[in-house]
Amino acid sequence: MSEDSEKEDYSDRTISDEDESDEDMFMKFVSEDFHRCALLTADSFGDPFFPRTTQILLEYQLGRWVPRLREPRDLYGVSSSGPLSPTRWPYHCEVIDEKVQHIDWTPSCPEPMYIPTGLETEPLYPDSKEDTVVYLAEDAYKEPCFVYSRVGGNRTPLKQPVDYRDNTLMFEARFESGNLQKVVKVAEYEYQLTVRPDLFTNKHTQWYYFQVTNMRAGIVYRFTIVNFTKPASLYSRGMRPLFYSEKEAKAHHIGWQRIGDQIKYYRNNPGQDGRHYFSLTWTFQFPHNKDTCYFAHCYPYTYTNLQEYLSGINNDPVRSKFCKIRVLCHTLARNMVYILTITTPLKNSDSRKRKAVILTARVHPGETNSSWIMKGFLDYILGNSSDAQLLRDTFVFKVVPMLNPDGVIVGNYRCSLAGRDLNRNYTSLLKESFPSVWYTRNMVHRLMEKREVILYCDLHGHSRKENIFMYGCDGSDRSKTLYLQQRIFPLMLSKNCPDKFSFSACKFNVQKSKEGTGRVVMWKMGIRNSFTMEATFCGSTLGNKRGTHFSTKDLESMGYHFCDSLLDYCDPDRTKYYRCLKELEEMERHITLEKVFEDSDTPVIHITLDLESSSRGSDSSESIDSLTDLLKLTSQKKHLKTKKERNSTTASHQNAREGQEVYDRGHLLQRHKQSNSDVKDTRPNEPGDYMVDYFRRQLPNQGLV
To answer: Catalytic positions (predicted)?
Structure first.
């Protein structure tokens, strides 16, 4: 049963002491768990008004019995009374019994990126029958497509062609999210690795995650992955592989850390099919003998990690009151896709007044950084801070934390078990092939019939760019106001975390190849603020974090900054909103002017008059004094606890510029009304002398970060 079959109900289903009467004393004999959800079934009554059925439950609310339909049995994906739902694999996948677990840890200092020395080598490995194959996973190619799933997959032992008594490293990747296809020992301490393409495809080789044992400390080992397909990589820009040691975790409580020397990403010889492949090579010395270690492309976050996290929420008597965990649908392998509804339960008011915010993640299973951002968001929104309470009181959050659990389980980078990219199939009608995106789109459609959705954000990882940024949609075909409004939230986000989020890296367009993405489909459905948030696999080029890798805590902090920016965006005091809107107008004007100057020999005075009468010009009589003034204002922002406190915090700034703000805001409101009513802009052009004087001023920096 899916989420779209569920009738939304945020009424308070608890019974207070003051509502309890003497004639209801028998309720004291009912168990607490049963008491909270239902007290009687309809067939318990002899009244012929009620049909004899167990599918109608009677709840005691505010002094009377209220009938409702029983929830479908599989609607609850996490239960406090039983174990987690077992993980299902394609039947032919071999899975080891060992459960891989890692501790959470944050380095005391940011980990620097790798600086090339110019002496890095580029190993090339011609095929040789004399080389020793030390690991080979043949199970991936037993079927051309997905057939059926099984709990635990196929546990047939995989023979190791080497003896544990020698010094050969032992490799393993037959665990959740693991990915390694083949390992060849090419020298005493040198290994050639091949990662497995996404199941039922022959491409998407980016994600790797594997175990290494039987090592010797102090020896320089070289690892080379030889079948990457992307010409550009963050490994060429200083990114280091991730390493985890079980002995380090146990003895020193040290988790995942960035390691490696002589790191090089380069094009190697073409493969047998004529395609060019790329290699990643690095050297490393293990800290301990006979340790159990792991290498990974990014911080792993598995389906089991998610289930354990959701189980913790479900078992928490506080958080479970305002976070309802349901099953959106089941995947091809019959794994559960969870959906969370987060809001403060209402007792007697209409919940339709609350606007909705939608977040999704892990449509691409190898982009694990998106799960860490999602975890940070959930940690904050389910916390006990005043801002979190305010957000829950104001909005209804619909959250799908893992859209592609099948791909996550088997260690895919991009695709589901259908062998397709789910984020290109939001327009598909094939519910059976792409259930998670089909049901997500349907859930959003039903939600929009009940309430306004002010923001949709799909979390992703990016393999070629640094920092964190957003992709939005271009509203220029509708109106200039909408065109700028869609940029306000990303701009606010860049000001709240200037050392991580880059507004200058954001793009706002709709390419034909992206029309099947969640971002574009939700935008076309009517959600004005529809974004994809991209988080680098590497680190930052901004502020104090410049030249360092992002840790899991850095990624989690983006969840908090998202919430903080949402409060700014929806603050009843619109000062920050309109200031950002004015700044965007200035930026757009300067970009337009630069393009005109580059492409035209027209005199300046003619260009300025044309710009002022165009649809992209500014309606305000004066521009913002400078970016410095705005940045000074935002740098003094304090975390607002309530609406009253947030209004009082910005009141001083508003009073200081009261005359100017009233004038500017009047123009902006007028423009907003004209845009929404599709009234053509009939304002007169500014005087030419003013524009000539404007061009004599120094243009501020276009970038915000």
So the answer is: 534
Residue 87 is predicted with a pLDDT of 95
Amino acid at 91: Y
pLDDT for 52-110, tens place per residue?
A: 667 777 777 777 888 877 765 545 556 555 557 899 999 999 999 889 999 999 999 99
**How many other CB atoms sit within 10 Å of the CB of residue 588?**
18
Give the closest residue to 486 by CA, choosing from 472, 500, 498, 497: 472
Distance in angstroms (rounded) separating the CA atoms of residues 297 and 152:
24
Catalytic residue selected from 3, 248, 466, 534: 534
**In a 3-state reduction of DSSP, which class is residue 199?**
coil
Nearest-angstrom CA–CA distance, 614 and 692: 17
pLDDT in tens, 640-680: 445 446 546 555 555 545 544 444 555 545 544 444 444 33
For 570-600, where are the alpha helices, taking DSSP H only? 575-599
Question: How many C-alpha atoms does 338 have within 13 Å on its Cβ side?
Answer: 27
Residues 6+ apart with CB under 8 A from 465: 234, 505, 534, 536
Tokens of 90: 């394609």
Give residue-wise pLDDT tens across range 471-500: 999 865 556 667 788 999 999 999 999 999
Judge whether 246 counts as a catalytic residue.
no
Residue 78 DSSP symbol: -
Tokens 């204002």 locate to: 633
